[in-house]
Amino acid sequence: QKEVEQDPGPLSVPEGAIVSLNCTYSNSAFQYFMWYRQYSRKGPELLMYTYSSGNKEDGRFTAQVDKSSKYISLFIRDSQPSDSATYLCAMSAGTGRRALTFGSGTRLQVQP
Amino acid sequence: DTGVSQDPRHKITKRGQNVTFRCDPISEHNRLYWYRQTLGQGPEFLTYFQNEAQLEKSRLLSDRFSAERPKGSFSTLEIQRTEQGDSAMYLCASSPGAGVTYEQYFGPGTRLTVT
To answer: What sign results for the dihedral spanned by CA atoms B47, B86, B43, A6?
Structure first.
């Protein structure tokens, strides 16, 4: 079983919809959480970075972390066709160890 | 452009050949990482440098792989005697050295095809 699980999709939504993307993880030591967006054949782009539990909002994006359930979410409001990409969650236990553990990514398609 | 840069962007090589990739991190970032990504998967960690010191290595980094960061600036990743299983996107990332921060900023990647 992978340390980080993510539904591969594809997830198809109409333009303007609210999108919910999720990851579950098994390592309770994870405390730093990130969401990346990756367009086809490009490098991942950092969208959101959060520490421990709670919510963080940045424009149309909201990241939620529930450490008690080992569950993180990314919400995208007013989705646009340009949001069509693969979304990767990533996490780190910190404590000096720098390697990120990634989910396998969820492919999102926003239909115009 | 002040982001992470990687060269080449694409490399096609025959099995058994050696290849070398270069990464230039964001200036002032003293931490540098290498990852490998195959189709449909997330990036997998290979190795990490703080300045010129290689501090972490994954079990994925077999003895055919070697990474260097000789002056604490750019880094190279060499794969010797390439195999078809080495075909992947090789990603470089960097992060600031100051403070307690774990986010990483990725470059565009080098896509390797071994024929």
So the answer is: negative
